[in-house]
Amino acid sequence: MNQQAILFDARGLRPDEAQARALSSFDDLVPGRAMVLVDEQDASWLLSLLHRHRSHQFDWSPLEEGPARWRVRVDRRDRNAPRLRGVMEYLAWDHDRLDATLQDARERAGSGDWKGAMSRFIEFRHGLLRHIRMEEDVLFPAFEVRSGMAEEGPTAVMRAEHREIKAILLRLPDAIENGALEPFEAEVASLLAVLGDHNTKEEEVLYPMTDRMHDENERDELVRTMQGTHGVAQ
Q1: Which of 10, 65, 73, 114 is most buried, by the most CB atoms less than 10 A from its CB?
Q2: Which of 87, 105, 74, 51 is nearest to 1 (CA)?
Q3: pTM (two decimals)
Q4: DSSP 8-state secondary structure symbol assigned to residue 141
Q5: For residue 145, how many other CB atoms are within 10 A of its CB?
Q6: Residues of the chain predicted below pLDDT 70
Q7: For the CA atoms of the chain, what is the radius of gyration?
């Protein structure tokens, strides 16, 4: 996941040319590698294209969503991975991706590369807020309908922790802008104290329960819907 991604710049290309080149670039990827699409318009066209022609072969991670520039990372899945997706597989994978992005931001800050740290933190924040939106808009309602648990169930706890996470995310940019490593690491420690336990509860309880309550086609449809979720405007 930390390997350098291949850049595909679709700006200025005709739609038919962009689509053909996007599929060709994706086909050139070996499993485990990724490409980053850069475009001047909503990149959802690529998601639709991949669902039509390379279904279940990719993971989708918006990095920047307008208004002037859109960037999306597309990872090629392992050929031996199950064709139909499950909630646990998809969202645990996204946890790992976000962890790696935050770690990269920390390493850049530790080396004094505050510009790079801010760039990677912005990607992390965008991805984490989108992850929260995928859960609250898609996953949690599906879980609550099948389980009958809402007010007193695990999703109520997850929503409360999401609010804590969002509050910390609002404070972190100040430490980066000030080039202050100690305050930055202190805020990261606060975030990880909530996020680590939060992710563990999701992966050990909520995700497996959701998968068990849905058949394989329903699980796959949940994942497709979550992939199409946009991030939160910054």
Answers
A1: 10
A2: 74
A3: 0.93
A4: H
A5: 11
A6: 1-3, 232-234
A7: 18
